Amino acid sequence: MAFEIAHPRLEFGNVSPRRRLLALLLGLAALAGFAWCCATAHNALPIDATQAKKPLVTPGAGPRAT
Fold it and tell me: Distances in Å between the alpha carbon of 50 and those of 10, 25, 45?
């Protein structure tokens, strides 16, 4: 009930055609962005673990360590 008081129901008949078009374009852009994210995640390839490994550097473990 508090939500309805803070955010009264929007009457779409009172909204200008320009705002309706803007809302439609923003909704379509959000939907296209979501589809792009899903396609990118679906086509992602795993990182090759052999190339991604860096040699471990431990202080004092070099050839001169005693």
Answer: 57, 45, 14
Residue type at 35 in one-letter notation: A
User: What sections of 1-66 are H helices per DSSP?
Assistant: 2-6, 17-42, 49-52
Separation CA 20–CA 2 (nearest Å): 27
pTM (2 d.p.): 0.53
Q: What is the percent of the chain with per-residue pLDDT over 70, rounded to a whole number?
A: 58
The separation between CA 14 and the C-alpha centre of its own chain, rounded to angstroms, equals 33
Q: How far is CA 52 from CA 34, 46, 47, 48, 58, in A?
A: 29, 11, 7, 6, 18
Pick 4 or 31 by higher pLDDT.
31
